[in-house]
């Protein structure tokens, strides 16, 4: 795909959002489309598969603030006539002049390692008429891919290894990503000498455009691979194993370098970002690296003191309740919480909560009445000092 074809794509239209859509709106639109168009949900539907790839490409650009800004600037220049058929129109809407503006200042000089717009436009212009063009444009890196996995609370806290089944563009296994039929190899384009761009002069300017013979790739494939048709990429389903570290929290992302969408003709693959969702637990809660749990106790246990058995992530532990402990007090057990990345673990925070019996037999009621009388005789008033007294 040439630079012009790429920049003329309307990524906003692909996602069905306006050009001033917020990051959350773009993310929401992509997730809905990706879910509806995913190849697993549309087996054998080539149109849905192509739409899925287009939507993923649009999201890869618009979800990255820097790429989105460059994309918007480039589209504005195209719309205003800043680029003509040959790549530049002197005096057009972009306001280029012999002594001043270099498009490489706008797009970062083509230094973007991820093959973004800086890479696309890094060699488009050079000033001074007749000067040498920039070096060969690098192959475009594959887009990043996002997916999700849902874990139980204890799995997320202790760490787990999970298999993920993905359907995404991957290096063709027949040609190993070269795009050429097995037994053959791509050859250097004789027209551009492998640079992917051709240069010409117009007045005081020297400027460049993608080579028509190799479509800006720098190489020509005489015998394309029959499986990937020369792209070096095919959609395939694969299962990868992801190690989720201990202590991961809900919404946290794990990056797997090089496991994203494959780059064209052997270019580096993008990354895979796995968002972890954690199911709530019936027993435990979490506060940072601390584990929280509520333990029911009786009134007598709080008054007289006792030791209760409390669950942990890996078993149980005895927790001593001192005599005279107030309802709702939090007792801390060091080092029995969620494992930390740097080593060690948080604490276990045990909240004691009185469980009130709904029904008592006669001996228990009589004993309780006797206790209340003795409590009153001792001078204890539970509402002493209370503002509403």
Structure description:
This protein is an alpha+beta fold and 389 residues long. Among the domains are: 136-280, Ribbon (Chaperone, DNAj Protein, Chain A), CATH 2.10.230; 284-377, Urease metallochaperone UreE, N-terminal domain (HSP40/DNAj peptide-binding domain, Sandwich). Helix content is 24%, strand content 25%. It contains ten helices and 16 strands. It has helices at residues 3-7, 11-15, 23-37, 46-62, 65-79, 103-106, 117-121, 153-158, 299-304, 362-377; strands spanning 125-127, 145-151, 160-171, 187-188, 197-202, 205-210, 219-220, 233-244, 253-256, 272-278, 284-287, 290-297, 306-312, 315-321, 330-333, 348-354. The protein has a four-stranded mixed sheet with strand order 11-12-16-15. It has a three-stranded antiparallel sheet with strand order 1-6-5, with no helix packed on it. Helix 3 runs antiparallel to helix 4. The relative contact order is 0.10. Pfam families: DnaJ, DnaJ_C, DnaJ_CXXCXGXG.
């Amino acid at each position: 795909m040439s630079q012009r074809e790429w920049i003329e794509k309307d990524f906003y239209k692909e996602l069905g959002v306006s050009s001033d859509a917020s990051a959350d709106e773009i993310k929401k639109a992509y997730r809905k489309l990706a879910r509806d168009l995913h190849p697993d949900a549309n087996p054998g539907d080539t149109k849905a598969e192509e739409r899925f790839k287009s939507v993923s490409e649009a999201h890869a650009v618009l979800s990255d603030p820097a790429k989105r800004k460059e994309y918007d600037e480039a589209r504005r220049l195209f719309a205003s006539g800043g680029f003509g058929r040959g790549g530049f129109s002197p005096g057009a809407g972009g306001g280029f002049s012999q002594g001043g503006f270099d498009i490489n200042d706008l797009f970062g000089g083509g230094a973007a390692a991820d093959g973004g717009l800086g890479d696309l436009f890094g060699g488009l212009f050079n000033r001074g008429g007749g000067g040498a063009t920039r070096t060969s444009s690098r192959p475009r890196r594959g887009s990043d891919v996002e997916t999700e996995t849902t874990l139980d609370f204890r799995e997320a806290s202790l760490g787990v290894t999970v298999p993920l089944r993905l359907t995404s563009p991957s290096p063709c296994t027949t040609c190993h990503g070269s795009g050429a039929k097995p037994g053959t190899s791509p050859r250097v384009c004789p027209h551009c000498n492998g640079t992917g761009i051709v240069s010409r002069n117009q007045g005081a300017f020297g400027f460049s455009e993608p080579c028509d013979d190799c479509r800006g790739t720098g190489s020509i494939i005489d015998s394309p691979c029959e499986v990937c048709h020369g792209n070096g990429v095919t959609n395939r389903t694969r299962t990868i194993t992801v190690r989720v570290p201990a202590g991961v929290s809900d919404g946290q992302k794990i990056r797997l370098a090089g496991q994203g969408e494959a780059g064209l003709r052997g270019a580096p693959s993008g990354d895979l970002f796995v968002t972890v969702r954690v199911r709530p637990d019936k027993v435990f809660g979490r506060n940072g690296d601390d584990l929280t749990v509520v333990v029911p106790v009786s009134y007598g246990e709080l008054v007289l003191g006792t030791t209760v058995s409390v669950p942990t992530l890996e078993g149980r532990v005895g927790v001593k309740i001192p005599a005279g402990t107030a309802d709702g007090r939090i007792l801390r057990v060091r080092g029995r919480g969620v494992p930390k990345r740097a080593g060690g673990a948080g604490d276990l925070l045990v909240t004691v909560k009185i469980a009130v019996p709904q029904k008592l037999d006669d001996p228990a009621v009589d004993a309780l009445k006797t206790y209340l009388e003795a409590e009153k005789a001792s001078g204890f008033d539970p509402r002493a000092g209370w503002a509403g007294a």
